[in-house]
Design brief:
Elements (H helix, E strand, L loop, with lengths): L47 E4 L6 E3 L9 E3 L2 E2 L23 H5 E4 L3 H9 L9 E3 L9 H5 L1 H11 L4 E5 L8 H9 L3 E6 L5 H7 L6 H13 L4 E8 L8 H10 L4 E6 L6 H12 L4 H11 L17 H18 L11 H11 L3
Parallel strand pairs: 1-5, 3-6, 6-7, 7-8, 8-9, 9-10
Antiparallel strand pairs: 2-3, 4-5
Helix pairs in contact: 2-4, 4-5, 8-11
Length: 357
Amino acid sequence: MFKKSIRKGRGAQLNVHNRFFELSHEQRDDFLEYCAKEGEDADQNKTLHLPVFPKTIVNKVKSPDVGMAYSMNMYQGCEHGCIYCYARNSHEFWGFSAGLDFERRILVKKDAPQLLEEFIKRKSWKAYPIVMSGNTDCYQPAEKRFEITRQCLDVFLKYKHPVSIITKNALILRDLELLKQLAKDNLVSVNMSITSLSEDTRRILEPRTATIKKRLETVRVLSKNNIPVNVMLAPIIPSINSHEILPLAKTVSEAGALSIAHTIVRLNGAIGEIFTDWIKKAMPDRADKVLHQIENCHGGTLNDSRFGQRMRGEGNIAKQINDLVKLARFKYFKGKSMPRLNTELHETYKDGQMRLF
């Protein structure tokens, strides 16, 4: 049962202190925004889209245990409201809270397509897959309005450059024709995040994301159109979705996914406070159990910053989760694998263009 105090339609239930600022900025409830789910009370804080103008858009990923070398993010903050999201902490660098601000103060990088084009046209750049998005979802609700991700896909196609996409939104199917053109030259892969088969779990963990049904259909459509899909069972949270690993793997494999990946939840930075507050309101009957089991996976704390250890955890519970994922791969993904993206066409394209001058 939910407590009456829970804020419906949002993940975080509060704005936590920004560690970089001593003075908090004023929060204004200017508009009324009703939730999509019928019968729920509205969150009184409308999502605001704020333009920002960065000088660069492609980031070199320095963390050694993250499976990407370069990433780009068209939006900062994410309206999906996933309570566990590691990207929440990055909102503090912009002067906002990692809590509710992360979900309702969305920074929009309208110049991203131009910045991307400038980057991949550089003579010194050697083609390597760039991931959209390493931090916040490139197909979050703002994309329906601004279409920045779509414009960036046009740039990747124009320059025959490989791109990988991470999302949990069925909006990606809007760009199916673009993705099919990229896939003809093995220039695109998609990582679809599916953390549960239960809509009840999805609603409280990821309140403004696409339904599980829509995400599974997205995997089917992409796969039928020869667009390779990896499904991210991430994060696995003990006693919330850890029991779903095998049925999840079986279902996404039958939908056409070529592989799965997973992490064990870790609540770094401000997320520990946000998640603890949320679970005591959303799941009061099991809050202490879940928190203690997360601590068991990370040496007695909710956070784990050790490279190589932080994603997989340690201890008996983490071992059970990791062993289940290994079993799932053996049972449902034997003979399947994600292809390596083509990095050669971009170099050929650049050379060909240079010969025109």
